[in-house]
Amino acid sequence: MLIRHQLGSPEIHIDLRWLGRQREILGPEEFRRLLGEHLSPEDLDTVIGWIDQSDEQTE
């Protein structure tokens, strides 16, 4: 996903949409916990921010 972001690929919006959907299903706390198992704290905050921005754009 980072590579798609760096390249400006429009496919990142698909990734963010699916991550947002997973967050809805799991709930924000569980989603953050699970995602945090795979990312550094800084990267976790970045990805959560991207998801939040994506959610705002699709509302």
Which characteristics define this entry?
4 helices; 59 residues; 0% strand
How would you summarize this macromolecular structure in one to three sentences?
This protein is mainly α. The chain is built from 4 helices and no strands.
Q: How far apart are the termini?
A: 22 Å
Q: How much strand?
A: under 5%
Mean pLDDT: 92
What is the makeup of the main sheet? none
- What is the strand tally? 0
N-to-C SSE string, H for helix and E for strand: HHHH
Number of helices: 4
What radius of gyration results from the CA coordinates? Answer: 11 Å
Helix content: over 70%
Which of globular, elongated, flat, extended, rod-shaped describes the shape?
A: globular
Contiguous runs where pLDDT drops below 50 for at least 5 residues: none
**What structural class results from the helix and strand content?**
mainly alpha
Plain-language structure description:
The structure is a single chain. By secondary structure, this protein is mostly helical. It has helices at residues 2-7, 12-26, 28-36, 41-58. It contains four helices and no strands. The longest helix has 18 residues, at 41-58. The protein is globular, with a radius of gyration of 11 Å. The mean pLDDT is 92.
